[in-house]
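Pipeline run #58 for the internal structure catalog. This entry was flagged by the ingest filter as a single-chain record with no existing model, so it goes straight to prediction. Upstream metadata was stripped on purpose; only the residue string is passed forward. Reviewer on rotation: M.T. Logging verbosity set to normal.
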Amino acid sequence: MHTHPDLDLAPRWPVLAAFGLPVLAAKGIAAVVAWGTDVLLVRLPERPAEPLKPGAPRPPLTGPGEGWYSLCPWQSELSSSESERLLLLQIRHALTYAASLSDDDSTDWQGHPVRAAGGRTGKAKAKGRRPSRNQNGRQGGRGRQR
């Protein structure tokens, strides 16, 4: 596909195609885009932390206030294991952030509760997973049946 192999940093995550580019998405929201072999775009609420070297800008996505940041997938100043670790952290952060932008108020890719952007008002939720409803309208978890 002429893309960077670092999308393999999320091996259990499905890779989608959008406009000929491989994309990782969470809850239908794009989070990571491999733009050729030299640019990895990540959707984040803030600029990725040092020591990651930025990649070439890709306007308009990487313009001011757009929420996309370009990373160089070839972090030559870092060891390969450290580069892989830091890129993996950014990809996970991007997937969790993208999931939080969805109206779907369930869990992120790691199973942690995720709230819709802006939060919700009303009843306070109990900690942990939201109880599921079976076909009879009764609430119950996924655990053992009583």
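catalog note: The longest strand covers residues 29-35.
catalog note: The radius of gyration is 18 Å.
status: ready for reviewer M.T.
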